[in-house]
Amino acid sequence: MTGTLRVEYNGPVATIVLDNERRRNAMTKDMWQQFQPLLDLLAVDETVKVVVVRGAAENFSAGADISDLKDILHDPGTGRHDGGHVTAGENALASFHKPTIAAIDGYCIGGGWQIAGACDIRIASDRSTFGITPSKVGIIYPLSGIERLVRLAGPATAKYLLFSGDFIPAAEAMALGLLARVVPQGGFWAEITEFAERLASRSQLSIQAMKDIVDIIAKGGDDPGETSAAWQREMALSGEPEIGIQAFLAKQTPEFKWAGRDSRLFEL
User: Fold this and answer.
1) Residue 44 CB coordination number (10 Å)
2) What is d(CA 173, CA 134) in angstroms, rounded to the nearest whole number?
3) b or e along 234-262 (b: 16 or more beta carbons within 10 Å of the residue's beta carbon)?
4) Does domain 203-266 have CATH number 1.20.1250.20?
5) pLDDT per residue as tens digits for the range 89-133
6) Superfamily name with CATH number, domain 4-199
């Protein structure tokens, strides 16, 4: 099967490229399985502050490679047909501790939406098209993807998108709560670059802490209080507030130095 994930580096920003251009970046089983080891490398690379996910050439991803679909859904080790490889790749991205941006241009369909939905922030060009199409091919969307869609858009909208399989334009996806921003296609990539670099210049302690807390709140069930308290302990010892406040008062750009949390503070 063709297709791979590759990484491009631009200073503190790493870009994961979904590269299966001949099939509009449709995801193969092998591509899904590449997410975890690739993200493991980016997690320990202290020079990488932000990760962008995009498709090669003119599309984000057309979803699953239909010619590979049975292999993607079936796990011969367990006998299950629930797309475990897809869920593992999606969850690896969703649980990644650094900020992630889905840069969506062109088609974002099916499994492509699972990838986008697993990112922290989704920004699309105004020419992008979205669709979640399991009902068109007689399969059941992976549970993780349904859960995330319901959290983002609510049960009624999730049912509309899943049942109909209809394609919708970026403006409608924005109105339904699936996107943070829609940008004119002509300036799209410049906007993505500027935004990613802006996030990289912010305090990574602030961003990672708030990402952790927001995700706990969004999932529901767990009390975020202990996690918030642990991050507050980390902040108190980090020196980040002093750097930020001093730079603000001096009307200078802060140079934050925090490189990762002290796990001991999260075991108290």
Assistant:
1) 8
2) 18
3) bbeebebeebbeeeeeeeeebebebeebe
4) no
5) 999 999 999 999 999 999 999 999 999 999 999 999 999 999 999
6) 2-enoyl-CoA Hydratase; Chain A, domain 1 (3.90.226.10)
The pLDDT score that the predictor gives to residue 143 is 93
Contact 202, 153 (CB under 8 A): no
Q: Where are the domains of the chain?
A: 4-199, 203-266
Reference 138, options 73, 62, 61; nearest CA is 73
Mean pLDDT value across the chain: 93
Q: pTM to 2 decimals?
A: 0.93
Strands (DSSP E) along the chain, which ranges?
A: 4-10, 13-19, 50-55, 100-104, 107-109, 121-125, 129-131, 168-169, 181-183
Summarised one tens digit per residue, pLDDT across range 184-223 is 999 999 999 999 999 999 999 999 999 999 999 999 878 8
Residue 239 neighbours by CB under 8 Å, 6+ apart: 257, 258
CA 260 to chain centre: 20
